[in-house]
TrEMBL record:
It comes from Gossypium mustelinum (Cotton). Residues 556-567 have a biased composition (Basic residues). It comes from the Eukaryota. PANTHER family: NUCLEOLAR PROTEIN 5 NUCLEOLAR PROTEIN NOP5 NOP58, NUCLEOLAR PROTEIN 58. This is Nop domain-containing protein. SMART domains: NOSIC (SM00931). The keyword DNA damage does not apply. Belongs to the NOP5/NOP56 family. It is found in: Nucleus, Nucleolus. InterPro entries: Nop56/Nop58, NOP58/56_N, Nop_C, Nop_dom, Nop_dom_sf, NOSIC. Required for 60S ribosomal subunit biogenesis. Keywords: Nucleus, Ribosome biogenesis. GO terms for molecular function: snoRNA binding. GO terms for cellular component: box C/D methylation guide snoRNP complex; small-subunit processome.
Length: 567
């Protein structure tokens, strides 16, 4: 019987010398208390050494998955012909039995035997000391832990954090130095500042030119376009700047060298950052770009810390000051932070930036988790999500999406143009055509005279009706009450006249014309009575006013007499 034992250095096969001792499991541990007694129970038959750490890691991971590695299969085929093999894992034994047709045993006796071999391992395997075994086991355990945690030495995001910080510092320094060159050289050639806008081109032109008097002799074709070059040469002739000496030009050229060196180093650093971002966070880079992704990682502290944040936090990362100010003052919170500088948010219209930034933050949170904890090393997920976001952006802006294959979703509706139809409405009345008959004046004159005659008649009637109306308004309340009583009496009389005297006799209906005449007479009589009353009242008022006037006059005369007597 053979026993398979795994060590950090390789696989070992031990031959069981006395199989009868396996029956007494309780006493088996006593046999391994000393090295001499252990050698009487088992002896080393074969040993397969690992060539490097990668092979040891592969074998260890396969054993964790209960499957034999390629090296272990070769080793067992060479030394286990017709032998029974004792293993520490029953699943591994079943896999060896299926693939290699070797009988495997896993029981308490085998486990106790392996425990004893472990205690005397350095004595049973010659050339394997304790001082060698300890670092081997430590290195293998570290490699195995990294593999189980999906940790890669290439995915060190500390380099990204430092690189993006240095890149921002370089940008600040470059801007400061470039502005210093413009101010310094501007005393000598102020027109050059407006002609050349780019800082790097400006520094190169100043370094090449030196004194502005040399501009006409030099060739700027490698630095500037032809149009700008001619403009510079023309401006140098008529420049309003002051003269400077050679020592000042030397210092200005040294500063230009510093700016150009910094710009060159910045380009190298950006390429390095780009490669690191594509390695560490490929999906995040595909979504938001290298610079924005690196700033998000730097702001979060690390890629793993950023993976623990939800999409809402990723959305406003970098706008903490504005967020807490809005919460304190009870105003609306910010919609985006560092993610605002992503190309997808920049493409959106101002009214859609909030929606796109929210969608982008949600997708970016998924991409960060995939990069930090996923197995895949490609950016397929990031590219797929970017395509979805671009489609959503086009849908928000009302642009037609491309027609997908085999579907008619993107096919536009083509309608026949109708001049009498409005958008979203039914048919409207067509435009009226010109009527030339309306220009003739003969018919209009005759019609107008007829209408004037008709209008004169109703005017007279209206005046006649208006007079009694005015009289009625002047009547007091008792006159109205008398009218009502009279009307009630007339209605009763009419009813009695209409009702038949006997039920058998036929009803005699008076002629309608006679009725109308009677009613008109009664109304005229009422109106005459009212008019008489109104006129009597007016006469009384006049008499009263005439009586009061002499009394007032007598009073005034008395007062005048008194005044005269007093004087």
């Amino acid at each position: 019987m053979l026993v398979l034992f795994e060590t950090p250095a390789g696989f070992a096969l031990f031959k069981v010398l006395d199989e009868g001792k396996l029956n007494k499991v309780e006493d088996l541990s006593k046999e391994f208390l000393a090295a001499d007694s252990a050698r009487k129970v088992v002896s080393l038959q074969a040993f397969s050494k690992f060539e490097n750490t990668a092979e040891a890691l592969e074998a260890a991971t396969k054993l964790l998955e209960s499957t034999p590695s390629k090296g272990l299969r070769k080793f067992l085929r060479a030394h286990c012909d017709g032998e029974t093999l004792g293993v520490a894992d029953s699943k591994l034994g079943n896999a060896i039995k299926e693939k290699l047709k070797i009988d495997c045993v896993h029981n308490n006796a085998v486990m106790e035997l392996l425990r004893g071999v472990r205690t005397q391992l350095t004595e049973l395997i010659s050339g394997l000391g304790a001082q060698d075994l300890a670092p081997m086991s430590l290195g293998l355990s570290h490699s195995l832990s990294r593999y189980k945690l999906k940790f890669s030495a290439d995915k060190v995001d500390t380099m990204i954090v430092q690189a993006i910080g240095l890149l921002d510092d370089l940008d600040k320094e470059l801007n400061t130095y470039a502005m210093r060159i413009r101010e310094w050289y501007g005393w000598h050639f102020p027109e050059l500042t407006k002609i050349i806008q780019d800082n790097i081109q400006y520094a190169k032109a100043v370094k090449l030119m030196g004194d502005r008097a040399n501009a006409g002799k030099l060739d700027f074709s490698e630095i500037l376009p032809e149009e700008v070059e001619t403009e510079v040469k023309e401006a140098a002739v008529i420049s309003m700047g002051t003269e400077i000496n050679d020592l000042d030009l030397i210092n200005i050229k040294e500063l230009c060298d510093q700016v150009l060196n910094l710009a060159e180093y910045r380009a190298q650093l950006y390429d390095y950052l780009k490669s690191r971002m594509n390695t560490v966070a490929p999906n995040l880079t595909a979504l938001v770009g290298e610079l924005v992704g690196a700033r998000l990682i730097a702001h979060g502290g690390s890629l793993l810390n950023l993976a623990k944040q939800p999409g809402s936090t990723v959305q406003i990362l970098g706008a903490e000051k504005a967020l807490f100010r809005a919460l304190k003052t009870k105003h609306s919170t910010p919609k985006y932070g560092l993610i605002y500088h992503a190309s997808l948010v920049g493409q959106a219209a101002p009214k859609h930036k909030g929606k796109i930034s929210r969608s982008l933050a949600a997708k970016a949170a998924l991409a960060i988790r995939c990069d930090a904890l996923g197995d895949d090393q490609d950016n397929s997920m990031g590219l797929e999500n970017r395509a979805k976001l671009e489609a959503r952006l086009r849908a928000l802006e009302g642009k037609e999406l491309g027609r997908s294959a085999g579907s008619a979703k993107g096919k536009p509706k083509i309608e026949v143009y109708d001049k009498d139809r409005k958008k979203g409405a039914g048919l409207i009345t067509p435009a009226k055509t010109y009527n030339p008959a309306a220009d003739s004046l003969i018919g209009q004159i005759t019609n107008s005279t007829a209408l004037e005659e008709q209008d004169t008649v109703p005017k007279k009637k209206k005046k006649a009706e208006a007079k009694p109306a005015l009289v009625e308004e002047a009547v007091d309340v008792p006159a109205h009450e008398e009218k009502k009583e009279k009307k009630k009496k007339q209605k009763k009389a009419d009813r009695e006249a209409v009702l038949p005297t006997n039920e058998n006799e036929p009803e005699e209906e008076p002629a309608p014309k006679e009725k109308e005449k009677k009613k008109k007479k009664k109304r005229q009589a009422e109106d005459d009575g009212e008019n008489v009353e109104v006129e009597e009242k007016k006469k009384k008022k006049r008499k009263h006013a005439e009586e009061e006037e002499p009394e007032v006059q007598t009073k005034k005369e008395k007062k005048k007499k008194k005044k005269k007597s007093e004087d």
